[in-house]
Amino acid sequence: MAEIVILTGHLATGKTALAQTLAEQHGFVLVRTSELLRERFGQQSSKPLSRTDLQDRGRQLDEETDGEWLSNHIEALLSDQRPKIVIDHVRNERQLRHFRNRAQWRIVHVHLYAPKDSLEERFGPKQEEENIPYAAADPIESEEDIAKFRHDADVRINVNRTDHADTYIRVAARLGLFSDPGDRLVDIII
Predict the structure, then answer these.
(1) 51, 130 Cβ separation under 8 angstroms
(2) What is the mean predicted confidence (pLDDT) over 133-158?
(3) Residue 157 pairs with which residues in a beta bridge?
(4) Is residue 64 predicted with pLDDT exceeding 70?
(5) 41-62: per-residue pLDDT in tens?
(6) 80-103 residue pLDDT tens
(7) Rounded to whole angstroms, how far apart are CA atoms 137 and 13?
(8) What separation in angstroms does the CA of 134 have from each of 41, 103, 137, 190?
């Protein structure tokens, strides 16, 4: 059975770092929705797509497909025998619903959150670099989506109270990526 880890949360909660660690440490195929949109729409543009351009294109795809475009892409990846995928990130409840409706997949939904002022502070250096305010850069469309993410999530982590290593350990433990502490192991010295 395919295992799909879905990451949700506002901008600057650490979704990308967590996804990269799961890919590097445990062989998950990393799917970044921003890269999918760049691949799909980048050829249609004479200039590089900005963050807000990508969000507009994602919104357009969500309207055209009721948010199913992302799960359809994952289904195509799974036909290539890639049983472990981490998605950075699902941006609305419609996209999430299409994943939950696929009974043949084991879905683990991880929702990362923190107070808005803390997230705005974390985004600060990128705000200067990209010249875009946090509110415009955040891809989450509504607080209703965030409330639905919180309700649906298998794992919820307040990243204001953890660091990246702790977040990773909690998620990896939930995924069963470490041996059970009750397993009896033997060290052999030769």
Answers:
(1) yes
(2) 94
(3) 112
(4) yes
(5) 876 666 788 888 999 999 999 9
(6) 676 899 999 999 999 999 999 998
(7) 13
(8) 23, 36, 5, 57
Please name which of 156, 162, 32 lies closest in space to residue 85, comparing C-alpha atoms: 32
CA distance 25 to 37: 26
Provide the CB-side half-sphere exposure for 35 (13 A, CA). Answer: 8
- C-alpha dihedral over 58, 59, 62, 63, to 10 degrees? -140
Question: Is-contact 95 141, C-beta < 8 A?
Answer: no
> What is the number of other CB atoms lying within 10 angstroms of the CB of residue 43?
7
- The three-point CA angle 150-151-157 to 5° equals 35
Q: Euclidean distance between the first and final Cα of the chain, in Å?
A: 39
